[in-house]
């Protein structure tokens, strides 16, 4: 069997052509972002909020082909917003582990719009601890209207206009990276625009993150980079050596960014956090449905889909016990 290097120079055209000819790209890691910290059931009734719903959604996504799950725990006292409590992350993680012992759990440190940097770290203190955690290397701005959350949804509220920033400082990024390293949690860098590479490269120089690096390009999110092929190629051009890249396209850009990631040898993130629709005018029934589509796309483009064990090996994570 041909030896395959899972990290390589994505900028090298000869390497890319050889991998296409030999079907020797690494298996596609599919991450399911099952819920988020902004919208809830008011945006799509199929979006999971409670710990039990999130565990069920993860199990369905796992069966569909996801090897990683991205978790935003919700506040049980107000399911319309993200939690501040490690206990809530612990409950979600525990239920997921019971259903899917092998899957890679990736807890959010993005949280939601009402949380401080310290509160966004609550997922790092969960028991069982996550295998990975997201790490935002810089701030971004948002201006939008949250839809009304009517009854019979739990914790109803009216529509809310939001005009805000998600702030983070160099010191807070360092603290999150240091905490992850101390706890044996591998960071997933969420890159919103090319300027964030300044912070990524400083983390590398200071030894706060170690290879293999797992860098997600967030495309089409408000004040993130535009989701165009040219911009993706520029982001790839700046990747540090020994990196895996993952692409998440927000909303209507999920499908084209998934296809582009697969073509270029990268990995993908899909799910109801990023995209509420299967197609125009039709809400997605589940994150598993979006995972199934990504699996079909990968197979149609001659890419194997990674099992959790394969994903763990590529990302330098221990096998599940």
Task: Explain what you see.
The longest helix is centred in the first third of the chain and has 14 residues, at 51-64. Helix 2 (51-64) packs parallel to helix 3 and helix 2 (51-64) runs parallel beside helix 9. The chain has helices at residues 13-22, 51-64, 86-99, 117-120, 170-183, 197-205, 229-237, 254-264, 287-300, 308-315, and strands at 30-33, 68-71, 74-75, 78-82, 104-107, 132-135, 140-146, 160-166, 186-191, 213-219, 243-249, 267-270, 277-279, 282-283. 33% of the residues lie in helices and 21% in strands. The protein is globular and about 55 Å long. With 321 residues, it is α/β, with parallel strands linked by helices. Strand 5 (104-107), helix 4 (117-120) and strand 6 form a beta-alpha-beta unit. It has a single domain (13-315), classed as Aldolase class I (TIM Barrel, Alpha-Beta Barrel). The protein starts with 12 loop residues before the first helix and ends in a 6-residue tail after the last helix. The strands form four sheets. Strands 1-2-5-6-9-10-11-12 form an eight-stranded parallel beta barrel, surrounded by seven helices. Strands 3-4 form a two-stranded antiparallel ribbon. Strands 7-8 form a two-stranded antiparallel sheet. The relative contact order is 0.18. The chain has ten helices and 14 strands.
């Amino acid at each position: 069997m041909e030896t395959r290097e899972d990290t390589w120079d994505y900028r090298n055209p000869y390497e890319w052509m050889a991998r296409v000819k030999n079907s020797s790209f690494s298996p596609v890691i599919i991450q399911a972002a099952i819920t988020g910290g902004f919208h809830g059931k008011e945006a799509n009734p199929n979006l999971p909020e409670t710990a039990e719903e999130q565990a069920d959604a993860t199990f369905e996504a796992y069966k569909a082909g996801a090897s990683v799950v991205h978790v935003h725990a919700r506040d049980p006292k107000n399911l319309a917003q993200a939690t501040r409590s490690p206990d809530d992350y612990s409950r979600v993680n525990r239920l997921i582990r019971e259903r899917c012992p092998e899957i890679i759990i990736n807890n959010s440190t993005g949280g939601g719009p009402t949380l401080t940097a310290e509160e966004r770290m609550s997922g790092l203190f969960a028991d069982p601890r996550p295998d990975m955690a997201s790490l935002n290397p810089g701030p971004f701005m948002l201006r939008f209207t949250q839809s009304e959350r009517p009854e019979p949804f739990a914790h109803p509220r009216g529509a809310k206009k939001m005009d805000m920033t998600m702030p983070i400082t160099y010191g807070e990024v360092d603290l999150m990276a240091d905490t992850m390293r101390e706890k044996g949690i591998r960071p997933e860098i969420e890159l919103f625009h090319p300027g964030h590479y300044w912070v990524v490269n400083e983390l590398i120089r200071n030894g706060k993150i170690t290879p293999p690096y797992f860098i997600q390009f967030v495309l089409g999110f408000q004040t993130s980079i535009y989701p165009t092929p040219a911009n993706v190629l520029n982001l790839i051009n700046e990747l540090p050596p020994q990196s895996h890249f993952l692409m998440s396209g927000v909303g209507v850009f999920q499908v084209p960014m998934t296809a582009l990631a697969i073509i270029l040898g990268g990995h993908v993130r899909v799910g109801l956090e990023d995209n509420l629709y299967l197609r125009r005018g039709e809400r997605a029934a589940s994150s598993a449905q979006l995972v199934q589509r990504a699996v079909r796309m990968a197979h149609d483009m001659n890419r194997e889909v990674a099992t959790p064990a394969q994903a763990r090996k590529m990302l330098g994570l221990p096998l599940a016990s």
